[in-house]
Every structure is written in C-alpha cells, then in structure tokens.
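User: My instructor asked us to take a sequence, write out its structure as tokens, and then describe one feature of it. I'm not sure where to start. Here is the sequence I was given:
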Amino acid sequence: MGDPNLRGLQSDHDHLPAVKLAEHRAPDYYALLSVSPTAPAADIKAAYHRALLASHPDKRDRPGSQSADIGLLKQAFNTLYTPSLRKEYDALRFASNKPGGPRPAQVISLEEFEESEGASETSRWVYPCRCGGQYVVTEETLDAGQHLVGCASCSEVVWVGYELVDDVEGT
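Assistant: Let's start with the prediction itself. The structure tokens for your sequence are:
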C-alpha cells in the first residue's frame, strides 16, 4: 500500500490540517523544500530528506542557527507528495495569487451614451455592454451623484461622467 518509506507518514496524514491559502498566507511549500512547482515526486522526497537532515540539531552548522519546523516540513512533504493534495494545494496557491477585489470600473463619458426615448419626462441614456446587455443611466441617478452604473445583464460596472458646460451668451 504505497511507498514503504512513508509508512509512518501516511498514518499522520489524517490529522494534518488542510492548507487554506486564501484565508491566510501559508508558507510556500515549494520554497520550503527548495523544489520547483513542476518537480516530480522523487525530487520532492529527496528534498524533504535533505531538509530534515539540514534541520536536525546534530547536523546544523552553528548551534544558534535556525532550523525549519519539522511539522511544517512534514506537512509540505505530505501535501506535495500526495497527488490529490498537491492538486488542491496548487489550485489554492494559484487562486491566492490573483489580485482580490472587483475589477476597476471603466470610465465612460455621458457623451458616448445614446439618448433613448422613455415613457418618463426625464432624460435616459444607454450604452452597450460587452456581454450584449446595456448600461442605463437616468438624469435622476446622475443628479443624485450615482456615477457607478451596472449592466442590466451582467455584473460589469462603469463610471459615468459628464462635464458641465457654462452657457456663454452672445457667442
């Protein structure tokens, strides 16, 4: 049932906490074991043994030198060596490297909107969204200071701006 060298590690696997990169910044297991994200299982195993030896109290160069946490090394090895855990870890690692938050709104001038005829007496403008839907802005929303306008069909948002022009009489 698997690699005989892992006999003691496999039984410990069940109580290890799952790696949640999105909730907090977990250590980079690849950097901890000094392996590439594309490293095969044999390289991960060899790197794990090197890291264990390097952090062993009898093998350290200086008495006061820092050693890696053995539990963390063990968790890194189990996560990267087990294909299903490695796949999950890589997915969480990839997701945590994406910038968070909503995408910045595109700024669109009211001049780029087309004025549409509506049943109400107030002005209404529409602008096509890339999804095929429309951004709709009315005179009331602009007067109320609401410049962020959402598409009626998707979650995209634009910032609608306009510039007041003073009427100069006599020109």
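For the description part of your assignment, you could build on this observation: The longest strand covers residues 124-128. Try explaining in your own words what that tells you about the chain.
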